[in-house]
C-alpha cells in the first residue's frame, strides 16, 4: 500500500526522509520556501552531501514518485500524511525555537479551511522538538477547524550523518 505524503522542509531530515519514502513506493511532494533549492532538487541533484542520496533522488524523480515545490497548499490538498521537517534552532535560553513548526501548522489549518478539506490528515512532527509540541500543534488545529480532520503524531528522527539514507531505509 502506498501513501500520498507531503514533507515540509527539505533540510537534512526532510530531504532524506522524503526521498526514502518515495523509494519505498509512496507518492511524495517535498515543500521548501527556497525556490533556488527546489530547482536544484527538481533537476535530480541534492543540495546536501549524503552517500547514496543523489542516486535515490534522481531515480525517484524519474519514476514519478518524488516531486519538489514551494506550494504548501498543493501538498496539503494532495497528501494524506504531512511531515513537518522544519528547523528548530535554539533560543538564547537553550530552548527550541518552535516558530517555524507552529507557523506551518497554522498555515496548514488555514489551507484546510480555505479548501473545505474533510479528508483525514495526519500531521507528523519530525522536527527535533520538546515534549508538549504535539499538544501545541494539536491545539492550533482544534482552535481553527470545526471538524476532526487532523491527527497529530510525533516521529523523532535519529539519522546519522553519513548513514542517513541507510538509517531511513532500514530504521
Tell me what you see in this structure:
- The chain is an alpha/beta fold and 171 residues long.
- It has a single domain (4-169), classed as NAD(P)-binding Rossmann-like Domain (Rossmann fold, 3-Layer(aba) Sandwich).
- The chain contains seven helices and six strands; from the N terminus they run βαβααβαβαβαβα.
- It has helices spanning 12-23, 35-42, 53-62, 72-78, 99-114, 133-144, 164-169; strands spanning 4-8, 27-31, 66-69, 81-84, 121-125, 150-154.
- The protein has a six-stranded parallel β-sheet, with helices on both faces.
- α6 (133-144) links the parallel β5 (121-125) and β6 (150-154).
If helices are DSSP runs of H or I spanning 4 or more residues, what is the number of helices?
7
Using the coordinates above, name the CATH class.
Alpha Beta
Unreliable stretches covering 5 or more consecutive residues: none
Order of helices and strands: EHEHHEHEHEHEH
Q: How does the helix and strand content classify structurally?
A: alpha/beta
What's the layout of helices and strands?
Blueprint: E1 4-8, H1 12-23, E2 27-31, H2 35-42, H3 53-62, E3 66-69, H4 72-78, E4 81-84, H5 99-114, E5 121-125, H6 133-144, E6 150-154, H7 164-169
Primary descriptors:
171 residues
In short:
This protein has 171 residues and is of the alpha/beta class.
